[in-house]
Amino acid sequence: MGGNGPVGQGADQWHGRMRLDGEPEVFGVGMDAQTRCRHYHQAVDIIAIKHYCCARYYPCHHCHEELADHPVMVWPGRLFDEPAVLCGICRCELGIGQYLGTDRCPRCDARFNPGCKLHRGLYFSTAGSGDPEG
Is 0.85 topped by the overall pTM? Predict the structure, then answer.
């Protein structure tokens, strides 16, 4: 995978990060405690996506673009069982395939924004995305 650790100069350069004891860190811009960010902040905008390129959770592709020092790489289809989607309500980590197959968190039943899946090609391999590992 493209991320055995964070990419960049170190944690101090990242703004808006959040760490709750024992839980994954989420890096975002103007982020609240449930992973809503400056770009997406409706009540149902409660997921963060671990980016394949750096293994860091971001609320959205815009936050990654603003905070990371590298381009996005999408998750190859062969890794869709990997936990890469975080519920901002209960901090449950979902596999990509599991997330794509539901509209709610399996642990706390919080509703996910259905519009997020319209951007799936920005995060996950899709047919025709050009991902050779699909």
Answer: no
